[in-house]
Amino acid sequence: MKKMRLSDGVAACMRKRAGGHVFRLVAIVGGGRQAAEVFYRRGAADLIVVFDNMEEIAKLRRRWGNRGDVLFFPLASGETADTLAEDGADTVRQLLLNRGSMQADSGLGQVPGVGRLAAVHLQKQDSFRNFLRNLKGIVIQATAGLCAGIDFVCTGSGAGGTFSGVGLEVARHLIQPLSDVGVGVNLTFQVLDATSFAGLGHRVGMNAAATVATLASYVADKGGKPYDRVTRSLHLTALPPLANDFASRNELVALDEQAWNCTGLQRQLGIETPNRALDGPLGNVVYRQIEFFRQLAPESDVANAVAARYLPELEKAIRDSTPVRELVTEVGSDTVATQLAREAISVLITEQPFIDDNEFLDGVRRAGERLSCEPYATLKTGERFLLTAIEQEFFQPAACLDDAVDRFRLVRTIADRTDAELMAVEAEVSTLRQVIAELEAKLLTTLGRLNRGCWFCRQARLQQKLHESSAQLRSFCDQLMHREAVHAALSEGLEAVGVTERRMALEFEGLRRALECFRPRGHAMPDQSLFATLSLNESWSELQGFATESREMQIWLLGSLVQCVTLEGLMVITNAEQPTVAGVVERLVSGDRAVVCPYPGGTAAPNGGQQYFVLPPVVPALARELETELQRRLPDSQLVHADFCRAGISAVTYRVFRPANLSELFPGSMARDLADARASDLRDLLFTDGTESLFALSDRCPSGL
Q1: Average pLDDT of 186-201?
Q2: Which DSSP letter does residue 638 get?
Q3: Burial of 523 by CB count in 10 Å (0-12 exposed, 13-18 middle, 19+ buried)?
Q4: How far apart are CA 420 and CA 422, in angstroms?
């Protein structure tokens, strides 16, 4: 049975439902959670759409390359806040016109109102309008008409001006064509609060609080058709204050995305969510507090270890791909002949007193057929390949290393056999040309003797000899023409095979050189007993194009090929004293975390929330032992395992709680930020749906504020 690729398996687990495929669309808006692409870009999303300013999009294009499943939409390129204000309400326009000028694509002014105007301006772009018109067809095509549902994730940070102003507008526009598919749509806003961005602007707290108010009001508002098939959720999380430490923020965002979206956790949340959704209008609003354990090793060291395992396998595969003559039983050419008119030799030998040598030879040599040749190779299995179409035969990437080696070996064998056959035909052509040259010399001698005497004195014997020599020459010329046509066809076929052979060789050698760059030289790498990787044979499809990826993406990709972590690896992650299940669980429950994120708003939830532990993937037997031990220690907690280690190898603890009223929705500093936003002279720019959305939310929810 064919092995399923790692990313395919993850995608299948997450998106399959009975009767069809669940289409996942991810909108990454702004830079706050762009690192989430590490999770989504390989198998966990059917389509990614990115909305940001032109400068950030240019960076992402360089980093990601051109991919058919990623679309980019620049925001407010070349616009100023004043030009965007022309499309705004009177109050917004007056607010912007009474202030200093500003290039709109410079972070959208770090204010949601400018982002909202940029989203309105986006609707004027032909590329975005075409995308909206085609979105329904994209979903149907991607799911082969068997769409069982749509997961739509809109992710970003509420602290700035991009997601806070653009995210909701983008969601509203995309929901319309998604609803037209006729299946249920799950819309989830994944939002990072302002804590991590403290110090980067004096409005980040107000922006985040106003964004939560706007999104919570939208989530609580069930609306009407065509939205009756849409469920809306808001997931809020916080990271520690990291200011300008973008690398650490991106690392934590990626780890969070990997853990939060794992199949096991989503299954557990899927059991709880429908029940809690009925507990008032805030039932679909979720806060999560995160704790990260130490990573098993720096990502670069993990990549080094994986590369060190793969290099010997790859080098052996290259050695094993030498030609095997028995794989190909025949190399030849199918020839189709079209008859041409030519004069009989008896007609060429006229009764005129003089026969021109050149005219006579041209008449004898004139071809009687037009030949069309197609070179082929017949395999030991009886299968036949057209050599000129061999590139199309191997157009699809190999599914595994064994398949790639078999292909390379076969192509090299065909190349060797074709080259040998070509040399044999060249020898035949050379022999025929020599024979023809000798016959032409004899024929010209006979023709000269005839031309030197009077025609009536010529003997019938000389005429007969000329006729026989001409017929023999014509026969050999016909043979030469046939062999030259075969030679030309084989040469064309050999060139096509050579192109394919060189392409395959470059793929092997390119991957070898790329992995060689990760070979550890003079510094430590993690103990290889800490984790197990997929074999190179199993991970071959994941490594397609590896050599052309950026160094950063190569590190992430090699890390994703870690199949599971051993008990010894869990001991390192949790800092347990002994590699035992009890020791690991003890440190999970009470050990020191490497990073403890604050609760959103800085205040713990009154109800404590549900606790989940997300560990790296392990073998099933070890997973059962860990779960049994944790249930013994903490019966109310849940233990699940990540689907892969692409974003890093660590353990993550979540405390998930759902606010019951507005005071829990805006805890601690968020309540103060919300009050400041309502009192600000910029409140019409902070609340993109207007402060009426907050009043509507107050009407629907228990107050508590």
Answers
A1: 84
A2: E
A3: exposed
A4: 5
The angle that helices 620-633 and 581-590 make with each other, rounded to 10 degrees, is 50
**Structure tokens, 167:** 């995210």
How far is residue 109's CA from residue 105's CA, in Å, rounded to a whole number? 8
Q: Say whether 99 sits in a helix, a strand or coil.
A: coil
Rounded to whole angstroms, the Cα distance separating 238 from 363 reads 91
**CA terminus-to-terminus distance, the chain:** 60
**For 497, which DSSP code?**
H
> Minimal CA–CA distance to 607: which of 667, 672, 675, 669?
667
**Three-state DSSP state, 517:** coil
Both tokens assigned to 676: 């400041």
Confidence of residue 8 (pLDDT cuts 50, 70, 90): very low
Q: Which string of DSSP letters, residue by residue, matches 532-591?
A: EE--HHHHGGGGTTGGGS-HHHHHHHHHHTEEEE-HHHHHHHHT-SSSSHHHHHHHHHHS
The residues, ordered by sequence, that sit 6+ positions from 585 with a Cβ below 8 Å of its Cβ are: 626, 629, 630, 633
Query: How many whole angstroms separate alpha carbon 265 and alpha carbon 270?
Result: 8
260: closest CA among 667, 664, 656?
Answer: 656
Q: Are 376 and 334 in contact (CB under 8 A)?
A: yes
Q: Tokens representing 140? A: 């149907």
Peptide bond connecting 226 to the previous residue in cis, omega within 30 degrees of 0: yes
Q: Is residue 459 packed enough to be buried (19+ CB in 10 Å), middle (13-18) or exposed (0-12)?
A: exposed
pTM of the model: 0.74
Local confidence band at 485 (pLDDT 50, 70, 90 cut-offs): very high
